[in-house]
Design a protein that fits this description.
Length: about 300
């Protein structure tokens, strides 16, 4: 069984001035996330990586490039989920050929299948690959919620090994308490990682890990080592960053804020692709002040 660790960073996709993938900066970003921010695993072409605007060809190139550059220093999870089962199977098979360590499969969006449809969707993809599968339940984006019962049903499939849960802490608790041994529940909300750990969660699939990953790793280690007071203190210090990257100074779509924050750290990851737009001057100033508090 692959161990993805407790800190997983959903990596942004660097773009150059022409809007194409910036490969040199992708290399720098991988090194920074592994060596400085201490991430255990990278998610490539997830929501934070702007997967809706990446072509399949770009995704496969990214999978191959990141696997080669990471060179075993971190595990690599490919975002291969979509609202088409057939398409997801095809992309998952390409990711497996590229040498990734696992895949992240989001709940089908827009067509809003019922629970049986979700079960059949995920089980079909899992059966089409030997890779470990992490489910991704994010009702706020997909318009559909994978239930606790369906998650547990899917957890009985050998290579479905984890879920990224964004519905509620209650669902984290219910799944963690009833899942088979070895099935791991990750929070998909940075501000909820400590509460998630407290109810049986295993770790975080993070956006803020780009900026405060090393501190998040310290917080998680403190909690699992029994130093709850230290973990709570670190969490209190990081909460403004967790919130600010999504509210700069009002709600902004991910990864608009974190890309600008990385630019402030000297990483030329470029802007976002339409239909996302760059931060306003007011939002930039907010992010500058936010990052200044942790520099």
């Amino acid at each position: 069984m692959v161990e993805f660790g407790r800190l997983i960073t959903a990596m942004v996709t660097p773009f150059n001035d022409e809007g194409s993938i910036h490969w040199e900066e992708t290399s720098r970003l991988i090194d920074y996330l592994i060596d400085v921010q201490q991430t255990d695993t990278l998610v490539i072409a997830g929501t934070t990586g702007e997967s809706p605007t990446l072509t399949d060809a770009e995704k496969v190139q990214l999978f191959e490039f990141v696997v080669k550059h990471a060179a075993g220093r971190a595990k690599i999870i490919a975002g291969t989920g979509s609202n088409s089962t057939h398409h997801s199977i095809q992309l998952t098979r390409e990711a497996e050929k590229a040498g990734v360590d696992g895949v992240l499969l989001v709940v089908p969006y827009y067509n809003k299948p019922n629970q049986e449809g979700m079960y059949q969707h995920f089980s079909a993809i899992a059966k089409a690959t030997s890779l470990p599968v992490m489910l991704y339940n994010v009702p706020g984006r997909t318009g559909a919620c994978l239930s606790v019962e369906t998650t547990l049903r899917l957890a009985a499939i050998d290579n479905i090994v984890a879920t990224k849960e964004c519905a509620s802490i209650e669902q984290v608790a219910q799944i963690s308490g009833a899942a088979p041994e070895g099935f791991k529940v990750y929070s998909g909300d940075d501000s909820s990682v400590l509460p998630a750990l407290a109810v049986g969660g295993y770790g975080i699939v993070s956006v803020a890990g780009h900026i405060v990953g090393a501190s998040m790793k310290e917080m998680i280690h403190a909690y699992v080592s029994g130093d709850v007071s230290k973990a709570a203190s670190i969490n209190h210090r990081l909460l403004p960053v967790f919130k600010g990257l999504f509210e700069a100074p009002h709600p902004v779509p991910n990864p608009v804020a974190v890309k600008y924050a990385l630019a402030l750290r000297g990483y030329s990851v470029g802007t976002v692709r339409l239909p996302l737009v760059p931060p306003t001057e007011q939002e930039k100033e907010f992010i500058r002040q936010l990052i200044g508090t942790i520099s």
